[in-house]
Specification:
The protein is about 30% helix and about 30% strand. By secondary structure, it is α+β, with helices and mostly antiparallel strands. A hairpin with a 2-residue loop joins strand 12 and strand 13 (about 235). The protein is globular and about 60 Å long. It binds 4'-deoxy-4'-aminopyridoxal-5'-phosphate (PMP). The site of 4'-deoxy-4'-aminopyridoxal-5'-phosphate has 14 residues, from helix 6 and strand 11.
């Protein structure tokens, strides 16, 4: 009778952990709180309690170098399956899995993506566990040997099925602005920081499907995949089909940031 199971009525977070250090801890906990507020679930733990719980799981799995901590809070169990609910006790689920971000050498081959219409609801800034559209897009990408499905709403590129999207044109970086149409990715924020450190101009401005296909570079980003260069979309090459130089700079800067201790976003 858990509403997480019955309705996908819950919020989740994914915390990347490098050498037992949680990358972007505060940002992830803040986004978790926002999601819970949006769907009116009371946060069952304080920040300190979450940190203790997450660190406990990290320690159990300490033999794995890099971990992704998946944390889900669902509204809880009701007496019956009905759309409305009483006040319930939230269910907390936490798991750790190994992450092995691809090496730069590997990524230099580039990856393929699909581009499809974004048919999701318009609260995409909420990290809800109900991810049916997203999982369908991911499955279609997988079946086509692609890294990701990039989504397009009314001619504008929003984000990927589980990532944010960036393009480079004439050495400027563009990514969709925050709002209800995208998840405010924590990796996206780190990339904005990396661009500043590399003194490359980044604009939080939307771009069209046409601009995506005509970009010099396309990347997707997420906590577990970091920043991945996309060199073809729907079977069409992006520029010359090679991984671009701006990606390489940002990738290197991201590797520095993720292992530095003063990266608290
Ligand atoms: N957009 C969507 C739809 C996602 O599912 C994700 C990954 N959870 C992201 C963007 C990237 O977010 P983050 O960088 O915080 O992992």
């Amino acid at each position: 009778m858990d509403r997480g199971f019955l309705f996908g009525d819950g919020i989740y977070e994914v915390f990347p952990v490098y050498n037992n250090f949680i990358f972007g801890l505060d940002s992830h906990l803040n986004r978790l709180q926002k999601g819970l507020d949006t769907i009116n679930i009371q946060n069952p733990h304080s920040k300190d309690e979450w940190v203790k719980l997450i660190n406990k799981i990290i320690l159990i799995n300490k033999d794995s170098d890099n971990q992704a901590i998946y944390l889900q809070i669902s509204r809880g169990c009701d007496e019956d399956r009905k759309h409305t609910h009483a006040k319930l006790i939230p269910t907390v689920y936490i798991q750790s899995s190994n992450i092995r971000p691809s090496s730069k050498d590997h990524l230099l081959n580039g990856r393929a993506a699909l581009c499809r219409d974004d048919i999701r609801w318009s609260k995409c800034n909420t990290k809800a566990t109900s991810l049916l559209a997203n999982t369908m897009y991911a499955q279609e990408a997988k079946e086509n040997g692609a890294e990701e499905t990039i989504l397009c709403r009314n001619g504008v590129i929003t984000e990927g099925s589980s990532s944010n999207v960036f393009i480079v044109k004439n050495n400027y970086i563009y990514t969709h602005p925050k709002g209800t149409l995208i998840l405010p990715g924590i990796t996206r924020e780190f990339i904005i920081e990396c661009a500043k450190q590399c003194e490359i101009q980044l604009h939080e401005e939307s771009f069209s499907e046409e601009e995506l296909f005509n970009a010099d570079e396309v990347w997707v980003s997420s906590s577990t995949r970091e920043v991945i260069p996309i060199t073809s979309i729907n079977g069409k090459q992006i520029k010359d089909g090679l991984v671009g130089p701006v990606w390489s700079l940002i990738y290197d800067q991201y590797q520095i940031l993720k292992t530095s201790s003063d990266n608290l976003l």
